[in-house]
Amino acid sequence: MENRSMTCINCPMGCQVNVAYEIKDGKPDPDSFVITGNTCPRGKDYAISEMTAPTRTVTGTVSVKDSDKAVLPVKTVPPVPKDKVLTVAKELEKITVTAPISIGDVILSDVCGTGSNIVATGNL
Ligand code: SF4
Fold first, then answer.
1. Domain coordinates of the chain in residue numbers?
2. Is the CB of 38 under 6 A from ligand 1?
3. Which pTM was predicted?
4. 120 C-alpha vs ligand 1 centroid, how far in Å?
5. In the chain, pLDDT over 70 holds for what percent of residues?
6. Which of 38, 46, 56, 118 falls between 20 and 30 A from 8, CA-CA?
7. Comparing C-alpha atoms, which of 100, 37, 24 is closest to residue 120?
């Protein structure tokens, strides 16, 4: 049995979750996962996601044109694959928006082919 520990980031409790697992075909076998340390079911879901297809929410800002605000805060919805975080962050640097924009508006669909959208988290 292999072991991997991680801190659940779904709430401020930050539970230390441990996953014991077997290797099958060169990677962790989801059927073998024994998950402990999570206080609630979200910790189990987080651990499974981290072991099989880790994702992260990218937050940042995009440039604004013709406004007294210099930037608009945005985030990815849903989270993007962890290995695409830097690519998506660089994509944010290329975006310029103009008013009006409301919280929740989609600024860019399917960013970098991830299936996630860049969504405004502020008003303009
Ligand atoms: S396992 Fe549940 S209680 Fe623990 S940090 Fe994750 S979300 Fe919070």
1. 2-53, 59-120
2. yes
3. 0.80
4. 27
5. 100
6. 118
7. 100
Write out pLDDT tens, residues 38-94. Answer: 999 999 999 999 999 999 999 999 999 988 899 999 999 999 999 999 999 999 999
How far does residue 45's CA lie from ligand 1's centre (Å)? 10
* Region label for 113, one of left (φ > 0), alpha (ψ between -120 and 50) or beta (otherwise): left
**Which tokens sit at 50?**
């981290």
Asked if residue 43 lies in contact with residue 8, where contact means CB atoms within 8 angstroms, the answer is: yes
Q: Which atom of ligand 1 is nearest to the CA of 44?
A: 1
Which pLDDT does position 67 carry in this prediction? 87
* Cα-to-centroid distance, 57 and ligand 1 (Å): 17
Taking the centre of ligand 1 as the mean of its atom positions, its distance from the CA of residue 121, in whole angstroms, is: 25
**Class assignment of domain 59-120?**
alpha beta
Half-sphere exposure of 58 (CA within 13 A, CB side): 24
